[in-house]
Design a protein that fits this description.
The chain has 15 helices and 17 strands. The protein has helices at residues 2-10, 15-34, 47-61, 77-83, 117-128, 227-238, 266-269, 288-299, 309-313, 316-319, 332-341, 349-360, 394-409, 412-430, 436-449, and strands spanning 39-43, 66-69, 89-91, 99-105, 130-136, 158-162, 180-184, 195-197, 217-221, 243-247, 260-262, 275-280, 304-306, 326-328, 363-366, 372-375, 378-381.
């Protein structure tokens, strides 16, 4: 963000112009939430506070009742100039202040020290005294790079990002405090870099002359508990794969009539040259037979998705010489186990995912409420999915979707991005309180959303 702003300044744009764009753009959102009600803007001493003063002036110009709470006087020339544009009431404490919308413009992305107890108490009091709440850039006290924040932060209804997204908008322990996040465009240029938000993809339909093999044959390898792979197989079938083979030595009462079961010895079954991608891990088990099946799957040289038990069994030796596109899909515990196995000492989810991707040559989809994807030195963030996804079997469905998309695209990073968005869309179609089976079924309408 600092590099992008510097590029704007070099082009002749004044810093005051950027602050006006930010404040005016934020005022548009706040006015909608206020719907004519009273607005209180908590302004800090720096640029975030300056944005707050500009927004307060813009809201007052629209006829809304606006009050500014400024416990610290502006300390920069720009902030003082912004404060001079607001001719309404300014108070130094929040005592007796109430209204419809509270705006936190106290500290933004530049805060370099912990939030004081006094300021935290002030924010909580103003938050409680208003019906709705908005944070400028990030709620005060949250580190915009790490997403860490102090305990006891209130939950905001809306967080407005100025100019560009920051990592805290989609990852970190304080993510739950942000509420909905929206971007206020202020004209900053794209400066490249390794961090980006994954936007909902547009999935192409099959080619005119497509058939079941050219659309992608997915091999799903079952193990000790085959039910999990049946869930993944259903999701893969509905996520665009042309053909799904269930490689299982035993049948299961949940075996769908439209799913082909291959009970040949695994080495023979994997010899099918038409296989475009394979999935192994859900319900695999962790015994010697499971290890043998994992080694056979990796030795087949096909693009693959490794999930669940496969991530617990995986060792560096198993990946030696492998160059086929591979996606690892660990949750937090599996990511920790993989870091131990591959001797990765980095701290923090993002750093560990990047290091694991670098060391293994695989794409790493680190799952959780703040799912991130690391591959080739790049990191992708995702909008939070439905909290109803925290249900048994949800990961099996995601793995099946990813395997289907890998079979179609041949690219692990693209497949992971498409899978996360399809998974989230399926959750919306399934509604609240769904089971994994309901989620897998909802992949079908979700795919239609992205065509």
């Amino acid at each position: 963000m600092r590099a992008a702003e510097a590029a704007l300044f070099d082009s002749g744009i004044e810093e005051w112009e950027l602050m006006q764009r930010a404040g005016q753009g934020a005022a548009d959102w706040v006015a909608r939430l206020a719907a004519g009600g009273a607005v209180t803007v908590l302004c800090g001493p720096g640029h975030n506070g300056g944005d707050g003063y500009v927004a307060a002036a813009a809201l007052r110009a629209r006829g809304l009742p606006v009050k500014v709470v400024a416990p610290i006087a502006p300390k920069t020339d720009l902030a003082r100039h912004a404060a001079g544009t607001f001719d309404g009431e300014v108070v130094t404490t929040g005592e007796g202040v109430r209204g419809t919308v509270f705006v936190d413009a106290m500290f933004g992305i530049g805060l370099s020290r912990p939030l004081s107890d006094e300021h935290r108490a002030l924010i909580r009091a103003l938050h409680a005294a208003h019906e709705r709440s908005v944070a400028f850039d990030v709620p005060s006290g949250i580190d915009a790079d790490s997403g860490d924040g102090p305990d006891g932060l209130p939950h905001f209804d809306l967080t407005l990002a100025f100019g560009a997204w920051k990592p805290a908008h989609f990852s970190g322990d304080a993510l739950q405090a942000l509420g909905a996040v929206r971007l206020v465009e202020i004209g900053v240029p794209e400066c490249g870099g390794t961090l980006a938000l994954s936007l909902a993809p547009s999935i192409a339909p099959p080619d005119f002359d497509a058939h079941k093999y050219t659309r992608g044959l997915v091999a799903i390898i079952a193990g000790a508990m085959p039910g999990a792979t049946l869930m993944a197989a259903r999701a893969a079938s509905l996520a665009g794969a042309g053909y799904v083979k269930w490689m299982s030595s035993r049948d299961h009462p949940g075996h769908m009539p439209d799913l082909v079961r291959d009970d040949a010895p695994l080495g023979d079954a994997l010899g099918d040259d038409r296989i475009s991608a394979l999935l192994i891990g859900p319900g695999l088990g962790r015994d010697d037979d499971a290890c043998d099946r994992l080694e056979a799957a990796l030795a087949a040289g096909r693009p693959g998705v490794l999930d669940a038990d496969a991530l617990v069994l995986l060792t560096p030796a198993m990946l030696e010489g492998r160059d086929a596109p591979t996606l690892l899909t660990p949750h937090e515990g599996e990511l920790s186990r993989l870091c131990d196995a591959f001797e990765i000492a980095e701290e923090g989810k993002r750093a560990r995912a990047l290091a694991l991707a670098s060391k293994t040559g695989c794409a790493v989809l680190a799952k959780g409420p703040d799912t991130v994807l690391a591959a080739g030195g790049q990191l992708r963030f995702f909008p939070p999915g439905s909290r109803w996804l925290s249900v048994a079997g949800s990961g099996d469905v995601l793995a099946g979707i990813a395997a289907a998309r890998l079979a179609v695209t041949g690219d692990a990073m693209q497949a992971a991005c498409e899978a996360v968005h399809l998974h989230a869309r399926a959750a919306r179609h399934a509604g609240p309180g769904f089971t994994a089976a309901m989620l897998a079924k909802a992949v079908h309408p979700a795919l239609g959303d992205l065509l």
